[in-house]
Amino acid sequence: MRLIVLLLFLLSGYASCAQKIEVEKRLPLSQLEDTLRQWINQYYPQTGILRLYLEQSETGVFHEVKFRAAKHRYSIKFALPIGGLVDVEKTIKPREIPSAVYHQLQQSLDQTLKQWRLVKIQEQYPHPTGKLQRYELELKGIYEGAAGLFEVHFTPSGALESIRQVLQRPNDLLFF
Fold it and tell me: Dihedral of CA 14/138/119/86: which sign?
């Protein structure tokens, strides 16, 4: 009975905000289509080791290629089965965001979340040569009574777009 009450209590926090469910599975690089490999080499000729993942989320199934280039980590997502580009994400440091925009991001987070700690910042682009589409922040915090990992989107000018809780797969340590 206690277990049921505990589960209901824990799950009640998850229902209060939007959720992101995403599963990634590493694939052998041999499964990367040659046209996609050529496309990556065209825009990122100095890449490090490429890693290929199959990503399944609520929005669809994708191939995601991750690599390092020019002191940044990149993640390029292609739709399956066609192979069309979905987006390009570049991991950056907070100091790489204009200070006025970063100040606005911090203010929005302070007003929206009870507490928070930054895990990662990414810039999202629709294309490698395209304009900045949004900032994606991954952070740990408390939002609407739920504690956990959150994905927060901001416009290039620093306006809050969305907050979604990232549901992580269960850890064996949770089952005792």
Answer: positive
- Contact at 8 Å (CB) between 86 and 77? yes
CA dist 83 → 39, 63, 89, 95, 117 (Å): 11, 8, 17, 34, 35
Residues 6+ apart with CB under 8 A from 146: 13, 14, 16, 17, 165
Cα separation, 150 vs 167, in Å, equals: 9
Each residue's pLDDT, cut to its tens digit, for the chain (176 residues) gives 333 333 333 344 444 457 777 889 999 999 998 888 899 999 998 888 999 999 998 888 999 999 999 889 999 999 988 778 999 999 999 999 999 999 999 999 999 998 999 999 999 999 998 999 999 999 999 999 889 999 999 999 999 999 999 886 665 555 54
> How buried is 42 (Cβ within 10 angstroms: 0-12 exposed, 13-18 middle, 19+ buried)?
exposed
Could you give the 3-state DSSP secondary structure of residue 12? helix
Residues pairing with 72 in the sheet: 69
Delineate the domains of the chain, giving CATH numbers in brackets: 18-88 (3.10.450), 93-170 (3.10.450)
The answer for residues whose C-beta is within 8 angstroms of residue 140's C-beta and 6 or more apart is 116, 117, 119, 148, 149, 150
